[in-house]
Design brief:
By secondary structure, this protein is α+β, with helices and mostly antiparallel strands. It folds into two domains: 186 residues, 3-Layer(aba) Sandwich (D-Maltodextrin-Binding Protein, domain 2), CATH 3.40.190; 210 residues, Dipeptide-binding Protein, Domain 3 (Dipeptide-binding Protein, domain 3, Roll), CATH 3.10.105.10. It has 15 helices and 19 strands. It comes from Falsigemmobacter intermedius.
């Protein structure tokens, strides 16, 4: 019996409950289930998708990429201009207000850019802001962002990761006060936040509708519930307690589709999975410093069977630590076929004939993680598989306490390797590799405006990562969405659930 057969034999599918009427449309409240809690209401201090979705709901961006054309739409900004390769000028729309009624001005934008790009502020994703030299006010509605060096993905980071905050209010209440009572410029304002349980939003009556990128929300209220267990989510969907769920396992989505009565759809995403290994020994764990051990881990994992068993067939195997949708994600690199016997031979050559034990962390896709742990166990790598919230694992990474993990990365939905591979191997304290040659290649690619040159540099970097078997690339995710037949919603490839784009039929 194969490892995959054993794992699948132990998986019990949730029973489908009788379908009842949905209540959301009756009281104009859409009820949404998320499996992970909102770790903070201040998106600058979180790398979790749930926090970004929350901020997208309450804070408009300066600009937003049009999902159909790929071009930039102005949102809070009226216009933007590149003065030169390192100077970007924005003009704000006149009359946009925060939820407290205060007008958005250049002072707010300048303070936001300067405060959150300051290393002392300690944002969760430094790569999204560490390219900023400073911001300066030109007039009440105009400001400039000065870059440290050319940054081809500057606009992507501004669009995905940099909402403008109310400077006066934030400085008055501080980070903790803002996280408890956040305000923004978005379609929805916060009604309540209940840590561990979810939050509720209500449409902001003062929202000014300007063009296609600034349309008012059509549903008055949103209730987001934290429900970690997908079977509980499914039961709540069938009973009418919730209207929308996402990141639905493939087997569950297929059964709902066969049943009928609900909308079941999927969309590609920039998210990809990987297995990390501490190749530098920064955690004090030595085994992964040996290339042969890392190669053994790569050979031990049957990526195709894992994908086929637990994910949508449209989820593509990736050969590099990035998503093939991203610019520069070279796929013509060294690969390691599933070969457990070869994995055992490599471990023996490395002096681990009897194997070893290692702490192995994960935060999602439990069945796939358990199957991976079993595959590693089968070649002699005994895993202590531990499930934690994403934020808890991120904290342990900062403390050098994660020698190996199964993780995913959504790149802030930026379609460029600068937002993925470059983040992982940047030479920082949390870099598992700390290879100066690799870091130099990535940093040069990140700051070069010549796209052909960038592609060449990223190719060299990713070939180096693969040759050294630093990590294990897994697959690019396709996301399943299941929701009430009364609800209109079209998911985007950027994996942001735009609550404000939902409407009733």
């Amino acid at each position: 019996m194969t490892t995959m057969t054993r794992i699948l034999g132990s998986v019990a599918l949730a029973a489908l409950l009788p379908m009842t009427a949905f209540a959301g449309k009756a009281d104009d409240t859409v009820r949404v289930a998320f499996s992970k809690d909102l770790d903070t209401a201040d998106a600058y201090f979180s790398s979790a998708r749930e926090s970004t979705i929350f901020q997208f709901s309450i804070s408009d961006r300066l600009i937003e990429r049009n999902a159909e054309t790929g071009e930039w739409d102005n949102v809070v900004a009226e216009s933007f201009t590149w003065i030169d390769d390192v100077t970007l000028e924005f003009k704000l729309r006149d009359g946009i207000t925060f939820h407290n009624g205060e007008k958005v001005t250049a002072d707010d934008a300048v303070w936001t850019f300067n405060h959150f790009s300051d290393p002392a502020t300690g944002v969760a994703m430094p790569n999204t802001v560490n390219w900023i030299k400073n911001a300066e006010k030109i007039d009440d509605l105009t400001f400039r962002v000065n870059l440290k060096a050319p940054m081809p993905v500057a606009l992507d980071y501004i669009a995905s990761s940099m909402p403008i905050y109310p400077a006066k209010y934030y400085q008055e209440v501080g980070p903790e006060g803002y996280a408890k009572n956040p305000i923004g410029t978005g379609r929805y304002k916060v009604k309540s936040i209940d840590p561990g349980r979810g939050y509720t939003l209500e449409a902001y009556e003062g929202y000014e509708e300007i063009g296609p990128a600034r349309k008012k929300a059509t549903i008055k209220n949103v209730e987001v519930r934290t429900i970690p267990d997908v079977n509980t989510q499914m039961a709540d969907l069938f009973s009418g307690s919730i209207d929308f769920m996402w990141q639905v396992p493939e087997d569950q989505a297929q059964r709902v589709a066969a049943r009928g009565g609900y909308t079941v759809t999927q969309a590609p995403s920039v998210r990809f999975g990987y297995v990390s290994m501490d190749a530098s020994g920064r955690t004090g764990f030595e085994a992964f410093k040996d290339k042969r051990v890392r190669q053994a881990v790569n050979h031990a994992l049957d990526r195709v069977s894992l994908r086929d068993a637990f994910f949508a067939p449209t989820s593509t195997i990736t050969n590099s630590i990035c998503n093939p949708l991203q610019f520069g994600c070279e796929q013509d690199v060294a690969t390691y076929e599933y070969n457990p016997e070869k994995a055992k031979e490599l471990l023996k050559e490395a002096g681990y004939e009897k194997g070893f034990s290692v702490d192995f962390y994960a935060y999602r896709d439990r069945q796939a993680a358990e199957a991976m742990a079993q595959m590693l166990d089968d070649v002699g790598i005994k895993t202590n598989l531990t499930f934690l919230q994403y934020s808890a694992i991120a904290e342990k990474v900062l403390k050098n306490e994660v020698p190996a993990s199964f993780m995913t990365w959504g790149s802030g939905s930026v379609l460029d390797v600068a937002a993925s591979t470059s983040k992982f191997f940047d030479g920082s304290d949390i870099d598992d590799v700390r290879n100066p040659e690799l870091t130099a290649l990535l940093k040069e690619a990140d700051t070069t405006t010549d796209q052909a040159k960038r592609k060449e540099l990223y190719s060299k970097a990713l070939k180096l990562v693969a040759d050294e078997a630093y990590w294990v690339p897994l697959w690019a995710y396709t996301t399943n969405y299941v929701y009430s037949s009364d609800l209109n919603y079209v998911p985007n490839a950027d994996e942001y659930v735009r609550l404000y784009e939902m409407s009733w039929k």
